[in-house]
Amino acid sequence: MFQSLKRLDRNIWIRFLGETITGIMMFMIAPFLVLYYSDQLDSYLQVGIIMATGPIMALLGSMIGGRLADLYGRKPIMMIAIIGDALALIGFAFADSFWPLLLLNAMLGLTNSLFHPAASAMVADVTEPEHMNEAFGLLRMGHNIGAAFGPLLGSAVLFIDRELIFFAAAFVFGLYAISLGTFIHESLPEFTEDETPSNREVLRVFYNDRVFLVFIFAGIFISMGFSVVESMLPLFLKESLPTYTAQQNPFPYLLALNGIMVVFFQFPIASKLGNKPFGKVMLAGATVFGIGMILLAIVPRALFALDTPYVPLVGILLAVYAFYTLGEMIMSPVQQTFIALIAPENMRGAYNGAASIQWLIGGVTAPIIASVFFDNRAGHIALILIGGASCLSGIIYWQLGRHVQATEAKQKTA
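== Major facilitator superfamily MFS_1 ==
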């Protein structure tokens, strides 16, 4: 495992350090925004609309960002995105009503989405195929160090001085942008003008790549699961545990556990699964993930109905969330590696941008669908339905993996 880490490019390590620090700052804020919105606004539907505006704008940002990264380089697009994030965070310090919050979520969705296609393409540029799982696993580990410590820090600070933490986060993002400009080396491969596809050619390649299109379709249900758990689970726990105060809501502990598990286990899992068949790995991961969501829907309500004391209740919920997190850890690096391997070298940014559509569609639809259930005090039904759909995605991934293996076998014997 340590030999694999030593082989990773300097760009990967700079991103790991930068995204660990910015992740801590972002996770001090993000888990509690939905609770703040619900306190300030008139209905959960308004909360769901605000949560959905970011992904709507991110749909545009991902497509543009991936294409621009292929044309002008990974580094400038990544820097612009981080600076945009910093400006949006400053704006949140002053927003306290529906329209400002809506516009800032839209801005954050746009700028944040510019970053990821360029950054993922950069990983593929500087990493050998057999080590991509490790590279993506390391970066996800850094992100989740933030998920482990950010919510715990945020629960202590955010309700005391919300403006201060927004300004502090913006300052850290600004420092990260400077670090990217100073230390990251550009990784965009050199192509002649004839080797650079036009926008129409890019769209034609996407349309004809059936494997990629099926991959995106299957990922929509997984994206819905991630979105509804990450953005709406605090409200679901509030609904399921109606006598608990905001400070007693177990969500910060669950999110911290998720981060800790990823920190300690994501890289070993990614390394172990690096040479396993894509379809079988994704079937296992999606099934565990979906069942975990169904358990999150059922268990809190059952424990509250049984008058379970607070500490045992939190302990049982931590075990359920650990099961859900296991599915998440199995899937995430494998998905990113699959995109990197099927993308043409001169379209890596565009492929990563297009792949983001699955996350954006899920991010838009899941909060709105869930908010309708929440307004009818039936949030657990939304979790059960989306959890079941995630299990269905596992079957689609499995069939896709079998198709890819059969195609590769035919090509070898041709």
